[in-house]
Amino acid sequence: MKPKRIVQIVLITLTVIILAVTPVLAAKPQDVIQRSNGFPSGLHFNLNIHGKDPAVFDCSAMAPGGNSIFVGINDTATIQYVTNTKRTSNFPDGTSAYELYALDPCAVGGDKIAQVYLPTKVQVVDEFGGTTLVDSQGYYVFARILGKPENKQTESGPSTMILEPNIVVQACNDPGTDPNFPDYTDCLWSLGLIVGDNLYLANDETFERFDPAATGGKGKSTARDISPLFTYSGWVYWGEDPDTNDDGSLTDADIPVDWATAYPGANLNGNATLELYEWVLFHPDIDGDNYVDHGDATAAEYWLALAGIDIDTNDDLDISLEEWQAFQVTLGHAEYFDAAWIFDIADLVVTAQGITNNGATLVQFRFYPKNPDLTTYRP
Predict the structure, then answer these.
(1) In the chain, what are the helix, strand and coil shares in percent, each to the nearest 5?
(2) Which of 155-169, 214-228, 253-267 has the weakest average pLDDT?
(3) Beta bridge partner(s), residue 116
(4) Structural domain span for residue 268
(5) In this predicted structure, what is the pLDDT of residue 149?
(6) Same domain flag for 206 and 132
(7) What would the pLDDT profile of 38-69 be if each residue is shown by its tens digit?
């Protein structure tokens, strides 16, 4: 039976305060020490989210760049985050590949989607003025409302912004044959991966809803750790369709002529020729529907029998999805992630985070590298 996947969406509400914006720090490695405002101290990137009135604010012609994006003041929007582990070149305006960068700052009107690039490496300045590139190893993410509320204090409470967990929109790995891959911000020209549902479960200690009555819409609110909204739990699979000529049938015509160099791992029995059953079994998604499920495991039974390969570890005369997944793990075509930094699942990842803004004029996200050589988190 196909296992059921439980997907729970957890919302975090941030309450409003009035506070000045803090610039991005360019500092040497240091400990992250919790401060009274809820933000840790230490090396980090800022992302400023500005709430604007769509009736009077037009950002449609705004050029990429900077660390600010714009959303409707009382509206919904989506923030897409992009990472590319292979990127080394600066952006067109000269911004370093190792800085947070607004690829599309405008989510007011139009498609209501802003896009932000997150660097996977951090450029650290040492005490002698030299620079070193260090892997960020993901980020701790904190958020806080900073701006003056648009809706003031109302019966429903102060201004809020609701944040949803990130979902994976695209994921792909560098095929090693495309010199332009490091500059990509999407997977349109690359081999995509199949990403399942994010098996996202709430933790009551982590997800707290701000109580408007506690602040009365006045004074200071503290930043909250929203890092769990940037995690992924679930399977990721190599995403190619074995029906390469897209004729609806799996035949020898689907086997690439250059398989020996392009797909050496497909030769499961080590012979000089690549059999059709080897080509098919090399693909997690046998039926090419962009999902890996029990249907693929059932389809695999025929091809496994032709190959003389037994993966029925339960000896129940049925290939389960779990057994099919385990077989693909041995081929390097499947991997399970448990509460991982969501951008660790592939070389290039694009995620989408839905937001609902109810009167917030400025919200700040801070991204602190998880690398222990850069920061030490003290919750």
Answers:
(1) 15, 30, 55
(2) 214-228
(3) 81, 102
(4) 242-282+284-332
(5) 56
(6) yes
(7) 788 788 999 999 999 999 999 988 999 999 99
Give a three-class secondary structure readout of 229-282.
Answer: HHEEEEEEEECCCCCCCCCCCCCHHHCCCCHHHHCHHHCCCCCCCCCHHHHHHC
What is the enclosing helix (H) or strand (E) of 368? strand 362-369
- Indicate if the alpha-carbon torsion angle 346, 197, 369, 355 is positive or negative: positive
Angle, CA 232 vertex, CA 112 and CA 86 arms, to 5°: 75
DSSP code for 13: E
CA angle 86, 66, 369 (to 5 degrees): 50
- The answer as to whether 325 is a domain residue is yes
Domain count, the chain: 2
Cβ neighbours, 10 Å, residue 361: 21
DSSP summary character for residue 324: H
Are residue 272 and residue 216 in the same domain, yes or no?
no
Q: State the CB neighbour count (10 A cutoff) for residue 153.
A: 15
For strands 160-163 and 348-358, give the pairing: antiparallel
Q: Are strands 167-172 and 121-125 parallel, antiparallel or unpaired?
A: unpaired
From the list 376, 343, 369, the residue with the least C-alpha distance to 122 is 369
Where do the H-state alpha helices sit in the chain? 212-215, 259-262, 276-281, 294-307, 321-330
The pLDDT of residue 159 is 77
State the angle between helix axes of 294-307 and 321-330 in degrees (0 to 180), rounded to the nearest 10: 60
d(Cα 268, Cα 276) in Å, to the nearest integer? 11
Residue 222 sits in the same domain as residue 288: no
> CB under 8 Å to 141, separation ≥6 — which residues?
225, 226, 227, 229, 230, 365, 366, 367, 368
Q: What is the spatial distance between Cα 158 and Cα 363, in angstroms, rounded to a whole number?
A: 14
